[in-house]
Amino acid sequence: MADTPLIELIDIKKQFGPVIALNGVSVSVLPGECHCLLGDNGAGKSTFIKTMAGVHKPTTGEIRMNGQKVDFANPRDAMNAGVATVYQDLAMIPLMSVTRNFWMGREPRKGVWPFQFLDMDRANQVTLEEMRRMGISLREPDQAVGTLSGGERQTVAIARAVYFGAKVLILDEPTSALGVRQTANVLATIDRVRKTGNGIVFITHNVRHAMAVGDRFTVLNRGKTLGTAKRGELKPEELQDMMVGGAEMAELSSSLGGTV
Ligand SMILES: Nc1ncnc2c1ncn2[C@@H]1O[C@H](COP(=O)(O)OP(=O)(O)O)[C@@H](O)[C@H]1O
Ligand SMILES: [Mg+2]
C-alpha cells in the first residue's frame, strides 16, 4: 500500500437542521486498501458515504483526493474523480440482460454516424471478460440479471463500477441481505478489487464480514468515531462493543443470557 491516500475525509461534520449526523469524523482510504466502516443503525454511515460521494456537502471539514483538496458539487463530480458507490438497491433492471445492465446505455457503438448501431458482440465479450476477472463465469451474457444470485448481481455492480473508472469503491452493506456462500463470493470480489490497487470503503454492521477482508476499521457511533484501528489491533468482540457502545450492550446481552 502506498502512502498517499486515494481519498481522505478530514474532521467531517454534517448537520441537518438541529440533527448532528456526523461530528468530526476522519477516514482515509489507501490504494489497495479495504477500509471497513462499521456502525449500528442511525450511526451516520449513510450520511458519511453520501458526503464522500458528493450527495451531501459537509457542514465543515475537508475532502482530499491524492493529497489535493476537492469540492464535490454533486455525485457526478465525485464519479468523475473516481469515487463510485454501489448502493444496496444496485441500480439494476432484473429483466434486462447482464450485458445491458453492465453497460446501462454506455454500450460501445460501431459504424459511422448516422449509421451507428450498438456493438453488442463487443459489449457481450467485455462483460464476459470483466465478470470472469471477478471469478464468475456466466453461461451467457444475455441471460437476465434477475436470474443471477444476489452475490453475483452485487459482483456485476462492482465490476461495472471498476470498468467505468472507479478508484474508490464504496459498498453500502453489500453482504447484509446475502446467505453464507453468496457473502463469501462478495468478500472474494472485494479482495480481487483491492488487489488491483483500488480502494474500498466497505459499510457493514457485521463484524465477521468486516474482519474477513478489512485492512482498517472505523466504527461510527452516533455520528462520532473513536478512531481507526488496523487489522490485528482489535478483536471481533472489541469491534462489536465499540459499535453498539460497550457497557450498554454488555448489560443487554447478559439480560438475554449472553446470546447477543
Ligand atoms: N436528510 C436528513 N435529514 C435529517 N436527518 C437526517 C438526514 N439523513 C440522516 N439523518 C439523521 O442522521 C443520523 C444518521 O443517519 P444515517 O447516516 O442514515 O445512519 P446509518 O446509515 O448509519 O443508519 C440519523 O439520526 C438520521 O435520522
Ligand atoms: Mg444507512
CATH class: Alpha Beta
**What's the CATH topology label?**
Rossmann fold
- Count of runs of 4 or more consecutive helical residues: 9
Major sheet:
6 strands, mixed
Uncertain spans: none
Cα(first) to Cα(last) distance is: 36 Å
Q: Give the CATH H-level superfamily.
A: P-loop containing nucleotide triphosphate hydrolases
Tell me the strand order in the biggest sheet.
6-9-10-3-11-12
Query: Class by helix and strand content?
Result: alpha/beta
Number of discrete domains: 1
Quick tags:
260 residues, alpha/beta, Rossmann fold, six-stranded mixed beta sheet, four-stranded antiparallel beta sheet, 26% strand, globular, binds adenosine-5'-diphosphate, binds magnesium ion
In short:
The chain is α/β, with parallel strands linked by helices and 260 residues long. The protein has one domain (7-95, 144-255): P-loop containing nucleotide triphosphate hydrolases (Rossmann fold, 3-Layer(aba) Sandwich), CATH 3.40.50.300.
What does this structure look like?
Strands 6-9-10-3-11-12 form a six-stranded mixed β-sheet, sandwiched between helices. A four-stranded antiparallel β-sheet has the order 2-1-4-5, with helices on one face. Strands 7-8 form a two-stranded antiparallel ribbon. Helix 5 (150-163) packs parallel to helix 6 and helix 8 crosses helix 9. The chain has a single domain, classed as Rossmann fold, CATH 3.40.50. A hairpin with a 6-residue loop joins strand 7 and strand 8 (117-118). The protein has helices at residues 45-52, 75-80, 98-103, 120-133, 150-163, 180-195, 207-213, 236-244, 246-255; strands spanning 7-16, 19-29, 34-39, 60-65, 68-70, 83-86, 109-110, 117-118, 168-172, 199-204, 216-221, 224-230. Helix content is 35%, strand content 26%. Bound molecules: adenosine-5'-diphosphate (ADP) and magnesium ion. Adenosine-5'-diphosphate binds next to strand 2 and helix 1.
